[in-house]
Design brief:
- Four copies of one chain form a homotetramer.
- Chain A is α/β, with parallel strands linked by helices.
- Chain A is built from seven helices and ten strands.
- A nine-stranded mixed beta sheet of chain A has the order 2-1-3-4-9-8-7-5-6.
- In chain A, a hairpin with a 4-residue loop joins strand 7 and strand 8.
- The interface between A and B is large, with 40 and 40 residues.
- Strand 5 of chain C pairs parallel with strand 10 of chain D, so a sheet runs across the interface.
Chain lengths: 246, 246, 246, 246
C-alpha cells in the first residue's frame, strides 16, 4: 500500500529570530526552519513553512485547505494573528486537520479557542533542568522515545495549567526548581486531533534536539486526518419502518 | 454544619413563550418560571431568574458575581446575546461558577465557546418517544432517578453531537425514530463545572416533569463552586533550596 | 516502508456451532472460521484460529507469544477456560498484545479480569432491530463505516453495562425495544489496547455482515502493538546530579 | 438536613509497626491508629480499625457490610490477605463501598484486581524531597489544600506507574531525585469510588502531616456511597409499546 504524503505546514511567529541576536544565533533559519528541516527528510511528509508576517497572517484559506497537519509556534505577537485567521484554523481543525501546538503557543488565540479555557500556567526564565517523562510508552507519539527526554536548561512551565482534562496524558515534565507540568497532551476536537507539546523556549536549542524532533515527527503522523468527510448535521427525516426483520 | 445557600440564576431567552401560543400555554410564566418554581422549594437554594431582554442580556457583571450556578435556555436568539455577556459568563465559569446548559442551549455562544467545537447535532420535530437512560447510577446528578426517564413525545436530538469527549457520560437517550444521543454530559473547564442536559423543547411540557426537575436540582447542587480561590498563574521565583531534610 | 504482518489469532469457544443446528447452519466453519475468512484476504495480516477444546484452552504460551492481536468469542463455557490460560492472556495484553473482545465475551474471565468489574449487562433474545451508531467518525476503528450499522435482527444488550468508563466511546447501539448500549469501547491496559464490540449472537449471521467485518479488521490494525519493550519497574538509583547546565 | 454518619474502616497490615523499632516509634498505635485518630474528631464519620492478623484478614463480611468507606495500607504481607477477603472487598466496592488505597497498597491484591493491571512502579528508599502538586484545585479531595504538599523526606515512587488512565488526575508528585508520579488518582468501578494516594512510607511520619490527613478526610467524604441500590442486570422483557404519545 502507498499513501499520499502528509502535507505539513510549519507556522511560526518569526519575530524573536529577527529581533534577538541570541535567538537568531540558535535559529538562523527561524524556529520554523529548524522544525521543517527536521521533518523534510521523511518521504511520507510534504513540508512547507508559513509565518505571521505573510499575507493573512500566513494562514490563508488556500494554505489551510492544502494542509493535513499544522504546527504552530508563537509568543509575543499572539494578538497580531487576525481573528479571521484564527477562526479559519479552528474551523479546519474541526473538519479534521491535525494541529500541533508548541511551547508558548499555549497562549495563542487558536489554542485557547479550541480549548475553551485560559490555558494559563506558571513559568520561570530558563534556569531549570527539565525531564520530560514518557507516561504513554505505547502511544504513537512516544515511539522511539525512552523513559524521558532530558533538557539541561529550559524555561520552567508549571502547574496549574488551565486546560481541559486531556484525552490522553503523554508527557509530564519535572523541573529542577520543584515544579511539574503536563507537557504532552492530546485532545480530539470535531474531527481534528490536537497535540500540545511544551518544549521550545526561543533562546534554547530545543528544536535541534533529536528526541524533540522525533516527538514532533511522531505527532505529525499521529495527527493526520483519517480522510473521512466531516459528519453531517441538521434536520433529518423519520425512518419509514424500524420493525425487526427475522 | 450549615452552609450558605447556593445562589442560582435561571436564565432564559424568553421569546417563544411570548410569541407562540402553544409554548405560552405550557409555560405561562416562561421556561425560566417553570424551572425556578421547581427549584425554589429547596431551602439550600436561593433562586432568581433573568432573561435575554433585560439589560446586558440579563447577564450583567453584578448578577454573575452573585451567582453560584447559572442555568441557560435559548433557541432562536443566540446571536442577540451580546459578545460581552457571553464572554462574562465564560470567564465566571472558569473562575468556578457552575453552568447548566439546557436543550437548544447547545447552540449558544456560551456553550460553544466553552467547548471549542461546533456543538452541532441532528434533530427532528417532536414526533418521537424518548428514553433517557441513566448510565451513571452512582453520580450525584442521577440521585433519585431510576433506570431511565421516559418522555412520551419530544424533539429528537441525535448523534453525531460535535462536543469534546465528556468528562463523564451521565445519560444516553433513545428515540423511537432510531437515534441515540449523549443527552447528559459533564465537563470541568477552569474551576467551573458544566452539565449539558438535552431535554426541553419549548412546545413539550418537559420542565414540568418531576424527574427532569430532579435532574436539574441534582445538577445545581453538583455544580456549585467549592469556594476555592482560582489558581494563580504567571511568573514564579525559583525556590531557595530543595535539598531533602532527614 | 514495509511492515511485518500483524499476527492475528482468532479464538472461539466453538461449542454452539457443534451442538446447535441453527448456529451450525450459519457458521459451518465456526464463528472463528467466519471471522478468520474475513481477515485472511488482507496481506498485512497473518491469521490463525484457536478454540477452547484444544490443548491449554487453545491459549498456550507459544501461541500467545506469536500473537500480536487476539480476538475472543465465548458464551456458555467461560468457566472451562483454565485459570492459567486466562492469566496468560491478561499478562500478554499488559505486555502489549492487542485484544478484541466480541459479544458474549463480555462475561469471559479474561475481560472481567482486565476490567476489574462485573461486566454485567441486560439482554433479551433476538427480537430487536439494532442500529450501531458511530460516535467517533475520525477513529481508525470506524474507517469506512458510515453513520451507523443496521442489524435487522439481533439480541439486545442494554445498559447498564458495568464496565470502567471507556477511554474512547466508539459505538452506541439503539434497539427497537427501547434500550441503548455502549457497543464499541476502547481501553488501554498496560501496553495493550483492548476493544470491546458487542455484535455477534450465535444464531444471527452477524460475522458475515461486511460492515461488522470491516470494524473487526479496523480494530485489529488499531490494536497491534507498537513494538516497544514493556516499561521496566522496580528499584532505581538516585541520579548523580540534576544541576542545570547552561 | 442531617445525614447518617459515614462508616469508615481503616484497615492496616500492621506488621512493620510491630517488628521495626523505627516504624513503631513513629506510629506507636500503628498506621491505622494514626489515620483513625485523624478522622475521629469529625462528627460526620464513624471510625473503626481492622488489621490483617484479625480473623478473615480483618475483612470479614459483617465488617464490610457495615463499611461505607474502607482505607487500606499494606506492604510486606499482601499475599497473606486471603483470596476470599480480597474478593469480598472488590465485590463490596462494585456495590458502592468507597475505597482509599494508600501508598504501598498499590501492590495489594485488592487494588490490582480492581485495576486489572500490574500497578507496578519505580521506587527508591527515602532520600528524596517530595512535592505533591494539586492539579485539581476544584475537586472535593483537594479542599483546603493549597498548590502543593511538601514532604521533606520520603520514599520516591516514580513513573511509569502501570495503572489504567485515571478518571481524574488529582495530584502529581515531584521528587528531588528527578522523577514524577501520578500520586493522587480516582476511578469509579461499578458503583464504588476509588482513590489512590501514594504518600505514606512506614518510616516517615507522613500520616501525622495535617495536609495528608486533610486529603484522606476529604477523600473519605468524596468516596461515600450515594446510597443507591446497585443496578440490576440480566434478562429483561420487551416493552409493550414504544409508540410516541402526543
Amino acid at each position: 500500500m502507498t499513501f499520499p504524503p502528509i502535507r505539513v505546514t510549519v507556522w511560526n511567529e518569526y519575530r524573536h529570530e529577527r529581533n534577538d541576536e541570541c535567538c537568531r544565533s540558535i535559529y538562523p533559519e527561524g524556529i520554523h526552519g529548524a522544525i521543517a528541516n527536521a521533518l523534510r527528510p521523511h518521504p511520507d511528509l510534504l513540508v512547507r513553512t508559513a509565518t505571521l508576517d505573510e499575507a493573512e497572517s500566513g494562514l490563508d484559506a488556500e494554505t489551510l485547505a492544502q494542509t493535513d497537519v499544522l504546527t504552530i509556534w508563537g509568543h509575543i505577537a499572539h494578538n497580531e494573528v487576525s481573528e479571521e485567521a484564527a477562526e479559519r484554523v479552528c474551523k479546519r481543525v474541526l473538519e479534521g486537520m491535525g494541529l500541533i501546538v508548541l511551547h508558548s503557543g499555549h497562549d495563542s488565540k487558536i489554542f485557547k479557542r479550541l480549548m475553551g479555557t485560559s490555558c494559563s500556567l506558571r513559568w520561570r526564565d530558563p534556569e531549570d533542568r527539565e525531564r520530560i517523562w514518557n507516561l504513554a510508552p505505547n502511544h504513537p507519539i512516544t515511539q522511539g522515545i525512552g523513559d524521558y527526554i532530558e533538557l539541561p536548561l529550559h524555561e520552567m512551565y508549571g502547574e496549574r495549567f488551565d486546560i481541559p482534562a486531556p484525552d490522553e496524558l503523554i508527557f509530564v515534565s519535572w523541573f529542577s526548581g520543584g515544579e511539574v507540568f503536563r507537557s504532552g497532551c492530546t485532545w480530539q476536537r470535531g474531527n481534528g486531533k490536537i497535540f500540545y507539546f511544551s518544549p521550545g523556549h526561543e533562546t534554547c536549542p530545543i528544536y535541534h534536539h533529536p528526541q524533540i524532533q522525533r516527538v514532533i515527527l511522531n505527532a505529525v503522523r499521529w495527527a493526520k486526518p483519517c480522510g473521512y468527510p466531516p459528519a453531517t448535521f441538521g434536520k433529518v427525516p423519520a425512518p419509514e419502518s424500524l420493525t425487526p426483520n427475522s
